[in-house]
Write a structure and sequence with these properties.
It is built from 5 helices and 9 strands. It has 208 residues and is α+β, with helices and mostly antiparallel strands. The protein has one domain: Glutaredoxin (3-Layer(aba) Sandwich). Helix 2 crosses helix 5. It is globular, with a radius of gyration of 16 Å. It starts with a helix and ends with a helix. 36% of the residues are buried.
Length: 208
């Protein structure tokens, strides 16, 4: 699973690099694209993010406009994820703690890529394990597919004969969306909580 996630991550990086006409991803790879600091603004012809319609943990329909005016910190994963998702969600939670009062400007959002199992009730139980501020979103398969496509999130069910115990392969980035709904930054998997907090503070202090 981790190998697939790494491949998916570099596929997204390749798309971003192509937008700048970057030919070689030598040495630092991710670092050369600025993904190890405060993220990046997308070059012309390459977009991330966009409108979405999903369902929150109360069963209410929400859209991207629901969170307009707040900075959205978005991560795509699933509740049965054994390793990467819990680690990244804990990083987000710790980064928010280290932001102090500035954290009130952020809506941290966890969007499932496994709506078959991740019902509103299941998500409600899951997100509170990490942070009371964390917002869990699910939806129909079509809604999830549309949201994932907008953020160029790779996701696929891993081969398994088990109808309920399967895993999901997926890319692993944290996306920062501004108060106006536009994509602002992309944070890599494995970023330290303090590094993420510092990057967020820089963005938020600069204003909308």
């Amino acid at each position: 699973m981790l190998k697939t996630i790494r491949y998916a991550a570099f596929a997204l990086i390749a798309v971003i690099a192509a937008g700048w006409g970057v030919v070689w991803l030598r040495g630092g790879g991710v670092a050369q694209l600025g993904l190890d600091n405060i993220g990046l603004s997308m070059p012309g012809g390459v977009t991330l993010g966009g409108p979405f319609t999903l369902v929150d943990t109360t069963g209410a329909t929400v859209t991207d406009a629901t969170y307009r005016g707040s900075w959205m910190l978005i991560y795509f994963g699933f509740t049965y994820c054994p390793d990467v998702c819990p680690t990244e969600l804990q990083t987000v939670s710790t980064a928010l703690d280290r932001l102090g009062p500035l954290a009130t400007k952020i809506a941290p959002i966890f969007i499932t890529i496994d709506p078959e199992r991740d019902t509103p009730a299941a998500l409600a139980e899951y997100v509170k394990l990490f942070d009371q501020r964390l917002i869990g979103l699910t939806g129909t398969q079509d809604q999830i597919t549309a949201a994932a496509r907008a953020f160029r999130v790779y996701h696929a069910r891993a081969n398994s004969k088990d109808a309920t115990g399967y895993l999901m392969d997926h890319s692993s980035f944290v996306y920062l969306v501004g108060p106006d709904g536009t994509f602002r930054a992309l944070f890599r998997q494995g970023m330290a909580p303090q590094e993420m907090a510092d990057a967020l503070k820089t963005r938020l202090s600069a204003g909308g």
